[in-house]
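Exercise 7b. Backbone tokens:
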């Protein structure tokens, strides 16, 4: 599932071992070395990806080379469907983490899979529906929650998808961009969370001093 922090609130649609085996039998499994790009932000979405083995870090590289983690995807995860079905450019960068194997599902392969098993259509509909649900949740949060609570939810999701559950690697400007607020507004919200004893800001990172919930 192509995730941003917004979409990460929705449960992933993960392929079973049987579905992965069927996919690998019909398509070329592509190996990616540690640190190798799977896709770049702005690329055309002429296929989407299934992770067969290993992990993929999804996020965005900034102009200064800093990487904002959105999610770490694992065996059975799908990503890239939004660009594939809507025709918009890729919204995220995806990088193999520790090496990975993947299958690119283009339109010809998708038709073949769906002709063999209609369950593939149902799987993709579930995946896209969950992403929509996540997007609606964040829109609702933006309308009814103050920035401090939105920031707490965002940090909870980021921590859940990171290797270290007690730390988020992101700059305050990156967090501000993700929430759609000014750097000043973000800083005030972060200071409030710190005053509550929930976080401890650092350079390029936010330490979580207490559990945060993505549900607010």
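Sequence design result:
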């Amino acid at each position: 599932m192509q995730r941003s922090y917004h979409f990460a609130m929705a449960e992933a649609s993960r392929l079973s071992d049987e579905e992965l085996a069927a996919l690998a039998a019909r398509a070329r499994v592509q190996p990616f070395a540690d640190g190798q790009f799977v896709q770049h932000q702005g690329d055309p979405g002429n296929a989407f990806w299934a992770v067969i083995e290993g992990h993929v870090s999804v996020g965005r590289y900034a102009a200064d080379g800093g990487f904002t983690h959105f999610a770490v995807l694992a065996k059975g995860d799908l990503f890239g469907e939004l660009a594939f079905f809507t025709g918009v450019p890729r919204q995220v960068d995806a990088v193999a983490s520790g090496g990975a194997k993947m299958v690119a599902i283009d339109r010809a392969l998708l038709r073949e899979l769906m002709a063999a098993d209609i369950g593939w259509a149902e799987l993709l509909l579930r995946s896209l529906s969950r992403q929509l649900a996540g997007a609606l949740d964040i829109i609702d949060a933006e309308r009814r929650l103050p920035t401090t609570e939105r920031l707490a939810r965002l940090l909870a999701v980021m921590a859940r998808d990171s290797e270290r559950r007690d730390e988020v690697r992101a700059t305050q400007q990156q967090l501000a961009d993700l929430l759609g607020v000014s750097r000043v507004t973000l800083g005030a919200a972060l200071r409030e969370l710190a005053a509550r004893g929930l976080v401890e800001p650092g350079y390029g990172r936010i330490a979580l001093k207490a559990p945060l919930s993505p549900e607010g």
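Instructor comment: The first strand starts at residue 30 and ends at 32. The two ends are 23 Å apart (CA to CA).
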